[in-house]
Amino acid sequence: METLEEPGLCFPQLFNASCRKHTTPRSETLFIYILLSCMSVLTVTLNLLVIISISHFRQLHTPTNTILLSLGVSDLLVGLIVMPFQILLTEPCWFLGDLVCVVFFFFGFITVPASVVNMVLISVDRYMAICDPLHHPTKITQRRVQVCVVLCWVYCAFYSFVILYDNLKQPGRFNSCYGECVINIIGALHIVISFIIPISSIIVLYMRVFVVAVSQARSMRSHVAAVKLQRSLTVTVQRSELKAARTLGIVVAVFLMCYCPYFCVSLSGYNITMASSTNTFMNILLLLNSCFNPVIYAFFYPWFRKAIKVIVTFEILQPRSCQTNIL
């Protein structure tokens, strides 16, 4: 009977088949709960503002903002589903069943990669706008962008299904005991698709944008004697390019800061316990990118601040508010 009353087991009635509860300091657990809860609320709020702004105001219905809208949706789902799921994973035991465990991971492997792929699409759009501005309006059309966004989500759903196929086919097959939430994936494939290819693409595009921006700056200095109107236009273009280059530079820095710890440990082959503090910290850092994205991509634009003012003052409820001059 003492075994049945064993407090160190997740399911005492299952005897030795049950997992043992891992002990975590109460202060550390409370800190993680508060941090993840705040991250979840902030991520959902910021991305919801992005979604409402771009969806409601007609002036913002552009190809570039369509990608921003898709990014906002993916990051919103990260804050709404993945972050609360991460809170549950910090618990000593998993009580929701094997199927729920796999389903949560399935949605996680859709939303987080979708956020990364949308970042790549935005980098491509900015690259075309800066490096080939004459053909940008004809090549990056609303129709093509919408098709790319749909393909992005289809690709991420297919990727999630493929990488979790064995887990979906037989939920819980990789658990060593009752009370675990463990999945098995092809680590090399996950690292290449979710990290190496996206970050390589973003860095290459950013370097190209940076080179063009520097070239434009030198060209401007060499044509100081040009007519006043032409010089004014050159200054405007050069400033726009440098601003875009700075934005993409921040994107690369934040992406590396959030994703490098997780994937560097994965590349090293070092094995980390699922519910350990180290694993929790790396997952929190990775998810934090979805909270930073609306700040990087939206708060840098004046139209977003104007849109927020219209939303929070409830002017958005007035008739024809969708035609408000935001730009």
From TrEMBL:
GO molecular function terms listed in the Swiss-Prot or TrEMBL record: trace-amine receptor activity
UniProt key word Transport: no
Membrane topology, as annotated: Multi-pass membrane protein
Keyword Transmembrane helix: yes
InterPro entries tied to this protein: GPCR_Rhodpsn (IPR000276), GPCR_Rhodpsn_7TM (IPR017452), TAAR (IPR050569)
PROSITE patterns: G_PROTEIN_RECEP_F1_1, G_PROTEIN_RECEP_F1_2
Main location: membrane
Domain G-protein coupled receptors family 1 profile stretches: 46-297
SUPFAM superfamilies: Family A G protein-coupled receptor-like (SSF81321)
Highest taxon listed in the record's lineage: Eukaryota
Membrane-crossing residue ranges in chain numbering: 30-54, 66-89, 95-124, 145-165, 185-211, 248-272, 284-304
GO CC terms of this entry: plasma membrane
Subcellular localization: Cell membrane
UniProt keyword annotations, A-Z: Cell membrane, G-protein coupled receptor, Membrane, Receptor, Transducer, Transmembrane, Transmembrane helix
PANTHER family in UniProt: HISTAMINE RECEPTOR-RELATED G-PROTEIN COUPLED RECEPTOR (PTHR24249), TRACE AMINE ASSOCIATED RECEPTOR 19P-RELATED (PTHR24249:SF381)
Similarity-based family: Belongs to the G-protein coupled receptor 1 family.
Full protein name: Trace amine-associated receptor 13c-like
